[in-house]
Amino acid sequence: MLPFISASVLPGNVTFSSFNELYINLFGDQNLHFLDANGRSVQISLSKSSGCGFKSCLLYDNALFSASIKLPSAPNTAGVVVAFYTTNADVFKANHDELDFEFLGNVGGKDWIVQTNLFGNESVKRGREERYNLWFNPTQDFHTYSILWNKNWTIFYVDDVPIREVRRVYAMGEDYLSKPMSLYATIWDGSNWATSGGKHKVNYRYAPFNTGFTNFVIDGRGCTSDQIQHCKNSGPSFAANFSGLSTNDRSKMMSFRKKYMTYSHCQDRRRYPIALPECTNP
Description:
Blueprint: H1 19-22, E1 23-27, E2 32-34, E3 41-46, E4 52-56, E5 59-70, E6 80-87, E7 98-104, E8 113-119, E9 130-132, E10 143-149, E11 153-158, E12 161-167, E13 182-189, E14 209-223, H2 228-232, H3 238-241, H4 247-260, E15 261-264
Antiparallel strand pairs: 1-4, 2-3, 3-14, 4-13, 5-10, 5-14, 6-7, 6-13, 7-8, 8-9, 9-15, 10-11, 11-12
């Protein structure tokens, strides 16, 4: 029986899909298991022999990507990385785009850390990381994590709370994401960096580390890698028509960031003496 799935409010009018309608396994086949007979919930695991991951069958432009996720509840998850992200690195190898939700495990007694990042056209040297704590325990229940992306806006959501907004400004140039992307979800060993800069490694005494996924949503026009223009010519959708947060959503976002954000590249003057262009956007 599946655990109780916490209530959440997705932006837009969307429907849930089964795993096989949207995704294919990427690696670690032996570590992916269905949790229900209808294929609407899966578990991916990190064991000593392998991690695991899956990806969407198609690429998408102007899309909303979402899933409800329950993180591993082991006594010590240091070094474990769960990633829910979009990228087109397999198609655009020299100038790929990427949007990241990364969940970073921790030593016993400390909470998981959530990190977001984005870069366009291989601008990886200009990292745009932010890190946050959460107001709940993400290992006890399923919570919904969503990425809305179009040509002008990128919004990261946790449940019904927008936690980060990036508005494209002219000065960003090609640093803003511009090409269709696939959705990926993975769990893997990030011992060399994930917890305290690599100080704490994965302790496989507590393996397997299990992560649940359900409530799969991709709302956007999909295309194969040889039909990219089909994505570009997509019709109206919630994501494509999105033009900014409501007053209420902006208030929720600012409250979250004041209480739970622990790092933003926009505030890191040692790293960026001159803030990146989007940091001046109100």
